[in-house]
Recover the amino acids of this structure.
């Protein structure tokens, strides 16, 4: 078929049949090269789209993981804050109890006879050794 096309063109243009065959083969090779180039470009575009999709999927996965870790950390932080508040309340209650006990001990000490004497007598020692 190429030979028939070359013969028809050679009779009209005056070029030799071999030169026309060479020109046609070069043109066909150029068309084939353009086709290969377009196929590689299409494959590259498909590969780039697949990579972008994979990156988006990976990013979505890790954003979800990070959000879950942040939520867990926030819950643990809130739990620690609740525990700290409970410990603080218990500490304040115990401090108030100790303050009350101290005032009671001071009142009982002042009520003993000879409150201005120096040293420990038997009643003061009993006062200190009393269960609280």
């Amino acid at each position: 078929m190429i030979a028939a096309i070359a013969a028809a063109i050679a009779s009209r243009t005056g070029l030799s049949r071999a030169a026309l065959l060479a020109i046609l083969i070069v043109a066909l090779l150029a068309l084939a090269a353009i086709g290969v180039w377009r196929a590689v470009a299409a494959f590259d575009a498909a590969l780039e789209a697949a990579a972008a999709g994979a990156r988006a999927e990976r990013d979505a996965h890790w954003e979800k993981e990070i959000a879950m870790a942040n939520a867990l950390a926030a819950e643990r932080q809130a739990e620690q804050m609740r525990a700290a508040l409970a410990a603080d309340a218990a500490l304040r209650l115990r401090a108030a109890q100790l303050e009350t006990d101290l005032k009671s001990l001071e009142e009982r000490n002042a009520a003993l006879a000879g409150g201005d004497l120096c040293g420990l007598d038997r009643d003061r020692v009993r006062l200190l050794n009393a269960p609280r």
